[in-house]
Amino acid sequence: MANKTLLIEDLSTVGSVSMSIAVPIVTLFDEQPAILPSVLLSTHTGGCGQPATVSMEAAIPKFYQHWEKAAVHFNNFLIGYLGNSNQVYHEVDNLLRINLPSLLVLDPAFADHGKLYSRMPTEVVEDYLQLSQKADVFLPNLTEACLLLHRQIPEQLTKANLTDILNELTQKSEVIKLAITGIECDDQIGTVFMSHQKIKYVSSKKITGDYFGTGDLFSSLVFGLILNKESFETALTLANQWTTEAVVDTIKRTSRDSRMGVRLQTVFPKILAYKGS
């Protein structure tokens, strides 16, 4: 029995982030995703204080061992935040040895704004690099890309240094469909990637503020679009556009608690129209 699609990332019981975003988005692309939480949290980690957490490191091998006995197999994987337990990374790697992916989209989540996330051990950098060598699509932000390469983050971004980072990380990870997210240029924010040996940039007007879950929405959309046979460039372009429109819609909801993350409702009809539903 092939369930086809497995989502592996954190599950926050409150807030529109990570798994809470990926499940409805991927479902609208005509998939029936299975889920494997990397860690359970009472809330996401932005603005709600320190969440209560339940570790999944002992449960994950029991899950995939049972799946193997029950002949449940997966072809397509979306992997995001795996937490700060190195054992979880090793167990996910073991799972990928049992289920060789047809498509693996890896959206690493371990660093931003020039540093590792709080309580994140340095070992996860190499853990994510190891996972990237099984990936078909790799979506680090600039901080993550530089940490993976043991490079200093450039003080000023240029086409030349971004091209160097993309080319070096492509060689190190062996991922051809690689993009660096969250790149700011003038009043724009977007994603850089290589196409026919030239750097390309898909972007939208930067919106002031932090909106939880936007990266998760972006990677879920890229995953769904590539599952639907879109090109990498088209997937990045549509995901960037639809994520921006979701942020604009979120801002309009002035009574909404900002800690709840980005609203998804504006994205749903776009996916349904794209699917011809």
TrEMBL record:
Q: Give the E.C. number(s).
A: 2.7.1.35
GO MF term set: pyridoxal kinase activity
Please list the residue ranges annotated as the Pyridoxamine kinase/Phosphomethylpyrimidine kinase domain: 75-252
Keywords from the named record: ATP-binding, Kinase, Nucleotide-binding, Transferase
Alphabetized InterPro entries for the sequence: PM/HMP-P_kinase-1, PyrdxlKinase, Ribokinase-like
Identify this protein by name: pyridoxal kinase
